[in-house]
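Justification of resources, computational component.

The compute hours requested in this renewal are based largely on the per-chain cost of generating structure records like the one below. Each record pairs the submitted sequence with a full structure-token output. That output is archived, and it is also reused by downstream analysis tasks.
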Amino acid sequence: MRAVPLLFLLLATWLLGGCAAPPVKKEITIPTFNIAETTRIKKTIYLDSAKEYYRAYLALAPNHASRPDALRRLADMKLEATEKRLAEIEEQSEHGDREALKREQNSTASYDEAIALYEELLTAYPHYPLNDLVLYQLARVYDLNGEQERSLAALDRLAENYRDSRYFDEAQFRRGEAFFLRQRYSEAEAAYGAILPLGQLSPYYQKALYKHGWSLYKLERYDDAIASFVRLLDLNLFDQETALMLSDSSLADPAAQKLLDDAFLAIKLSFAYQKGASSISRYFAQHGQRPYEFKIYQLVGDFFLQQERVNDAADVYDTFIKLYPDHIHAPIFQAKIADVYQDARFTNLHIDAKRAFVTQYDIDSTYWNMRNRSVRSRILPELRASAESLARHYHAEFQRNRSSNAFDEALSWYRLYLRNFPYGPASAAINFLMAELLSENGEQMAAIEAYHKTAYDYGEHDKAAEAGYGALLIYKALASTFGEISQREWAENYVEQALHFSKNFPYDKRIPAILTDTAEKLFELNDYPQAVATAQMLLELGSDTDATLRRTAWTVIAHSQFELAQYPEAEASYQNALALFADNHALRGEITERIAASIYKQGEKARRQGDMHTAIAHFSRIAQITPKSALLATAIYDAAAAHIVLKEWPQAIDLLQTFRNNFPGHALQKDVTGKLAVVYMESGKLLEAAVEFESMIAAAGQKIEKEAVWLTAELYDKAARADSAVAVYKRYLDYFPHPLGQAMEARQRIATYYKKGGSNIGNYHFWLREMIAANEQADMERTERTQYLAANAALELAAPAYDDFISVALIRPLQENLRRKKQLMKVALDAYAKAASYNVAEVSTVATFHIAEAYNSFGRSLMESERPTGLNDEELEQYDFLLEEQAYPFEEKSIETHERNVLQTMFGIYDAWIKKSYQALTKLLPARYDKPEKSALYFSAIN
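The structure output for this chain reads:
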């Protein structure tokens, strides 16, 4: 008896759990109803035994308050179990006997039990709070069971009785879909319309709008249909940017794009089936403008065009333009109008449309000025084509009837085209047509200008020569109509035009004979190529031409070739001209100089190209062909310079000496000395080179260059002229005490010369001290090199002091010699300490060794000093003991200093002086240093 309440409690718990998780709705795919995509209640998989508990509960508690929930849950589980079994059968059918499984499916899987339970619940409990959910499930299970009419009836009950249900909008949408498929459009429109008040709160809102519009369209309620589609478009094309994007590309979502495309299609057809343009304008005047309005005008117009309703299409485009003249698509529609009329061969209307396009969207128009480059680039091709079409149309009309109005129109459109597109692809041809139009109307001056522009302002094109010759023909025809003065001015213009024509079209056989008189003018205008060409044309007339004219022609050719750097040709042309001059002609000298200049220029060109042998040959030809030329001196000098480049020293020396002897006052004489100095130096004549350099130094005065002074000293040095070298190095120090580095090198060399001489050791020591002083005074200019030189100088100066110290023996008078030896030791120690203070490794090791040896030597000298006379053995022993005590500190100091020198090996420094220190230590401290293992360790440290 206690099982009932326990079961009841358990089932109640399950029921409450089921009620706590309401189903989630999903959208269906439009436009057709697809049950596979129906929103389903979230399922919970129960154990098979759960159904048995529910059955037991229903049997044991027929009147309990939870019975409706139990019925609903049991029905849900029945539905779930059936769907699960059907899914398993479907999966098995992919791997087994499809027919056998199909029979099993029909025999075992049925929705009847779920339907019966839902119907029982609705009948027994008409006021059950979740009956909207029950009806929703019932409609779904009927649909799954293939009973669409009963499914629709369940949806009808849900929609009618549960307007506040969360399933209301989906139920209405399913009803609408069912009615639409059955072509019951009025009922479909009502069902879809019931969703619209919910707005964006319903996930079915946009699809409902879409199908609502199509339902109204099917009912031929076009304005109402348009309203629904417009509402749909408003949601998606809410601004101008989005609307314009739609005209250039598609949306990323194909389904959304299809939705919008269908909406536009319905709107297009709705307006087309009414009154076209007037219906569109009326509708948006009543309901407000839209950013995508242009798209509708475009679609309707294109639709009419497909149906060959030309005027209706043009009317649609034109209506939009009048309403929105500044819209970005207005020019596109205007171009469409022109194309429509052209295709229909409505010539006058086509011309009017073209005129309207150019007038409204010209480069000077308000529309043009308010648009960016992208929009302008779209308009530009049509502007160009329209202006050309209009000009050609009126030109043809003028040729037919000579109408002044047609002439004015044609000229106006030609000029507008050229103003807007001055250098476009067709501008030359348009300018040529305008020139012909002007000529045909008798406006010859204007025609000449137009022909001239066509011929010479557009580069190469097929009308260029014809236009240029056309201008010449008009010039020739008009020449006789002017008076004497005017004719002369007109002839000048004609000649200029003829020359211009000749320059641009040199192979045109229509060039007149006046080219003969214009060669000199071309040269004066610096038009050298054309001057040559014109003069050559003169010469080609034959030998019968006047000799003076031929001489002038050759002269113009030679001058022009010279200016064009065609120097071999210029030389030959000058020779031809010279042959035509009389021997006593005043211009022969000038022509001769031009020949020399042409030869010299050839030499210069060869030199620039690095061909020095050819350059020398040309420079040498001047002496042979024009020996009296003013260029001879320069030619000899440049030939010498070329020999220098080729390192042909004897030839260079010979020519430079010739120049020096033959042209003493020439401006280049100052450079000859320098070149001779270099040539002598390179040829090994160092003394001669040094003499030349010293001459340069003397001539330079305050402008002397330190490199030249240094080089001079080095040359004397290499020539074994030590005295001269020293003198120049000293002069270098007088002129250039800075920078320190080079000045120190000069002092070093001077000191070296004195050291090698050996006759004046005082001068040697003087320059060593100069090096040390200069380095100390230099401060910021000091370098490692100057420190090195100063250190070596200090080391050299320390050696004599050390030798003086060593030379003093401790003999009687003992006190005096001891005092003197101490003084000399201090001098030596100070000298070596100064040398070491530069921290130059190879100097500091020497200095440190000598310092240590000085201490050792002094200690040893004490021990070896002469003993006083008159001492007995005991006194002598005591005296020796006292000497040992005096000598010991010096020996210790020596050991310490040698060890300090040896320790430099730890820093990677090792040389002969460190080795000597080590050897000294083996004698001073044999117990420590005179061992093989110690020696091995020491040399290991060195390595």
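Residues 14 and 20 are 10 Å apart (CA to CA). Residues 873-902 form the longest helix (30 residues).
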